[in-house]
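Subgroup meeting minutes
Present: P.N., E.W., G.H.
Scribe: E.W.

1. P.N. recapped why we're keeping a running log of single-chain structure predictions: easier to compare across weeks, and new members can see raw inputs and outputs side by side.
2. G.H. added today's entry (256 aa).
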Amino acid sequence: MHPMLNVAVKAVRAAGKLINRAELDLDKVRVGLKGPGDFVTETDQAAEQTIIEVLKKAFPDHAILAEESGASGQSDFEWLIDPIDGTTNFIHGYPHYAVSIALRVKGVIQQAVIYNPATNDLFTASKGEGAYLNSRRIRVSKRHKSPEYLIGFAFPTSGQPACSTPAHHTMNALSSQVAGVRKTGSAVLDLAYVACGWLDGHLGFGLQPWDIAAGSLLVSEAGGLITDHQGNSDFLSCGQTVAGNPKTLQFLLQNL
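Output recorded in log:
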């Protein structure tokens, strides 16, 4: 394992221990709102601080871009951190959320780790070295017929009526063409699940860089493709994602 990835793994596991302790007594976890349906907890903040401390101890000169505390430092090496992707799931005791860390070097994602502390599933990838789940090599799905596809959707809750959003419109339109659609509440796990073939494809709307970065490397290292909604590589900055094997990606782009 790459030394920098090894440090990131230590960081997500340290955060995972904190999250698992909090999950044992959710009634005591303080919950706040950043926006309509956008929850933040003291556990998010504590997990993020734990991650930053581990990374900064090993790499004091590296920059940080984190969901709760924002950007700090200037460096060619930048860590993108989501302490709990799927906070709504977490505060309900629904075991589908993840800690996500990616390292971007001169604008290119080089290392990635996604960890679900509820299931102890650890997804890792280093650029050019493949993608792994619990140290086992993973690959994207080989399905190539749309009626067989299981597609994950990721988009933030908004104050708009459900039927009026492009994300809901696309999800409803696709539902009759594929085996199933899923809005799981965690974009990073959607992308990890595409990487290991549990989902055939993924569509993301209105996401942040920390929602995408680690998963994008997992998908590409597992033999898949990830683009923005126009089929270009601008997904990190625009927050719109499409991912899957080449056939699935083409199908999803045609239906956007």
